[in-house]
Amino acid sequence: MNQYIRGGALFAAGMIAGLLFMRPTQAQDDRLTGIRINHVGIFAKDWDETINFYTKTLGFKEAFTFKDKDGNVTTSYIQMNKENFLEIARATPERPAGLNHVGIWVDDIKATVANLRRRGVKVEDARTGNSKAPLTNVVDPNGIRLELLEFAPESSQKKAIDAWR
Fold first, then answer.
1. Rounded Cα gap, residues 115 and 94, in angstroms
2. Which CATH architecture fits 35-163?
3. Domain ranges of the chain
């Protein structure tokens, strides 16, 4: 019996010493959470060549497209894997070929916007985009646009992700 009492006392003494000497405090984690890269937006100088490269040469699938009022395709989402896309739009004199933006999928757009504002980042309230996903934009110090999106169940991206096989 003495052995159990001595063992319990030693355990309790170790716990108390640990609390006193280690001084546990709550870690302050300042990272944004619930975010991941979802897509890269590209302005294509040659639409057909670009779409063929990604779909035929690399074997990715065209997940969905957007058309203008005349029925012309303006943007195509190419699905590389379940959760990653390339957003291909036509280059114009005002929008030269190359990188357009990086799409970042967030779990909660309102909370992310609020968190960014607390950090002093200029960010507009979210609006609903063509894909029915709430989105907003932030520009990094290099001028690269970061498109923040939340994928609601009715969004084109969420539907493509859920349909992936």
1. 33
2. Roll (3.10)
3. 35-163
